[in-house]
Structures are given as C-alpha cells and as structure tokens.
Specification:
Rossmann fold, Pantoate--beta-alanine Ligase, Chain: A,domain 2, 2 domains, 3-stranded antiparallel beta sheet, binds pantoate
C-alpha cells in the first residue's frame, strides 16, 4: 500500500489506472469506513482512501482541534484490508492559500436538517470533495467511483446532486450504516462518549425505530410522532436538534397522507453531553 502526502505523488501514482474507486474520510477509521473501502474494492481498478480533517466543514465552536487524528492506526487497518493507496495531505498541501473558491450547494437541499444546525457545513464538505475529486479523478480515463456512508444521509444526497449538476465523471455509491450489536451507528465521535453516555446512546436509533414503526403501523400524524420522540429523548437528558420523517427523494416533509412507506427516511441528530450524534433509518 502506498501512503502519499502530496497531490503530485498521488497523480503520478494514479496515472497508470483507468478507473479509481475512492473513499474520502477524515480518518479515525472504524468498521463503517472499512466496509466502504471493501465496497470500493469491488468497483474500480485501484482503491484510494483519503484521510484529511477538513477545517472548512467545522464551525468555530466545533471539534476541529480535538477531532481524533490516528494516521498510523488508520494506515495499518487499510493495509490489512488490501487498500492500494492512502492520500493523507497536510492542510498546507490541500489549502496552500485561503480557499476563496467554494462550492455552495442549493439551499433547498443544504440549508435544512444538518445545514440548519451546522451552517456552512455542506459548503465545506462540497468544496473539499470537489477538490479531492479533481485530484483523484482528474486524469482517469474511464469513469471513477466514490463511496460515501449512508449515515451522513444528507451529505450523500448533496454529493450526488453536485456530481450530477457538474457532470463529474464519477459514480456515487452509498454504503450501508454499520451498527454495534446494540444498534448504535458507528461513528468516530462515539469515542467522545463516557461509558454512561455510550449506554444511553442507543436511545437515538431506538427513537428512530419507534418513529418508523408508528408510521408503518398506519400513524400519519408525523408532527405528533416527531414531538413524542423529541420529548422522550429530552426527558432522558438529550438535546434534540431534529427527529423527523422525510421523503428520501429530496429530504422534504412528505405530504400528509400522501406518502408510501418505501420512499421515506427517519433522520435524527441530538446531543448527549458534549457529543452530537446523527443517525437515520430508511423505510
Ligand atoms: O464524511 C466525512 O468524513 C467527510 O465529511 C468527508 C466526506 C470526508 C469530507 O471531509
């Protein structure tokens, strides 16, 4: 496995391949990331994972400085998996000058849910992903592939739309959420949880499952169900940003009584102590 730190080195290395399959990450890898890499290994003629904690997608009060940076352990896991290339640029390499050009996703998709609670987040994500795509796929002869986890559901939709609207030569693939035995979605931020918070954290997927079960059971008053779910978590000490049922197609609320199971997703974001968790359930 090659570990490269510069754009020039990566381009040199990829020049002899036709169709890279790419997994962008911020490192601190867990089984969820590794599943995305395994998926990528089935798609292209070379598998590339990037590790870069992207300052642009963090708000000033968020955890950019403390975000876990575990490059050696990450590389060991990727090597064991048979990943071909790790691209781990420094900030100076990826942003040698202030990144004045940015990709602003459409408000109708990016200003709600995560974008509402983390303003600028999707601009930061879209900008770095566009830049990484230019670096990884800039010289690819056949179309490339990129794999994004479904845990960041809205992010996956933003990236799909960006690729479509800019006609980028990349096929985007969604990777299923990987969960612990008790149902918690794997996330690098789970490492911030105290043992007590870790035990409590499963209440987020449970709240989503309860919402899903109620809708599948025929209850269509979504506002009431969402409020009940929010109240339940709030009583347990959570600070809820949103718990909501949306259309999968555009993440907007379904029309009352005008929706069919099979086209919906329940999404949630809530804070437990100082840790903000997100999760979702397609149904
Ligand atoms: O999902 C992530 O880890 C990040 O948002 C991404 C896609 C690597 C961009 O920094």
């Amino acid at each position: 496995m090659q570990v490269v730190h510069t754009i020039a080195e990566l381009r040199r290395h990829l020049a002899r391949f036709d169709a890279p399959a790419f997994v962008p990450t911020m490192g601190n890898l867990h089984e969820g990331h590794l599943a995305l890499v395994r998926q990528a290994q089935q798609l292209g003629d070379v598998t590339v994972a990037s590790i870069f904690v992207n300052r642009l997608q963090f708000l000033p009060h968020e955890d950019f400085d403390t975000y876990p940076r575990t490059l050696d352990a990450d590389c060991a896991q990727l090597e064991a998996l048979g990943c071909d290339v790790v691209f781990a640029p420094s900030e100076q390499e990826l942003y040698p000058e202030p990144q004045g050009f940015k990709v602003h996703p459409p408000a109708a998709l990016a200003d709600m849910l995560e974008g509402h609670f983390r303003p600028g987040f999707f601009t930061g994500v879209s900008t770095v992903v566009m830049k990484l795509f230019q670096i990884v796929f800039g010289q690819c002869k056949a179309g490339g592939h990129a794999v994004f986890g479904k845990k960041d559901y809205q992010q996956l939709m933003v990236i799909r739309q960006m690729v479509r609207q800019f006609a980028l030569p990349v096929t985007i693939h969604g990777g299923e959420i990987v969960r612990t035995d008790d149902g918690l979605a794997l996330s690098s931020r789970n490492g911030y949880l105290t043992p007590e918070e870790r035990a409590e954290a499963v209440q987020l997927p449970r709240a989503l499952q309860t919402l899903v079960a109620a809708v599948l059971g025929g209850e269509h008053n979504l506002a009431a169900l969402e409020q009940q779910a929010t109240d339940t978590l709030t009583r347990r000490g959570w600070q809820v940003d949103y718990l909501t049922v949306r259309r999968r197609a555009d993440l907007h609320p379904p029309a009352p009584n005008g929706f069919l199971p099979g086209e919906l997703v329940a999404l949630g974001a809530a804070r437990l102590g100082r840790t903000r968790l997100i999760d979702n359930w397609e149904f």
